[in-house]
Amino acid sequence: MGLSLVASTLTGIINVFLTTPLWNGTRRIMESDPQPSKPVSIPYNINHEKQANISAIPLKPETEPNLWEMMYQIANNEGILQLWHGTVSSLLLVSNPAIQYFLYEQIRVWVLGIKNRRGSAGGSMQLTAMEAFAFGALSKTVATVVTYPLQLGQVLIRLRKNEVKDLEEADHSNLNVEEYNGMTDCLYQQVTRGGFSSLFQGMSSKLVQTVGQASFIFVTYEQMLALVAKVMVPQ
Question: What is the pTM of this model?
Answer without folding.
Answer: 0.67
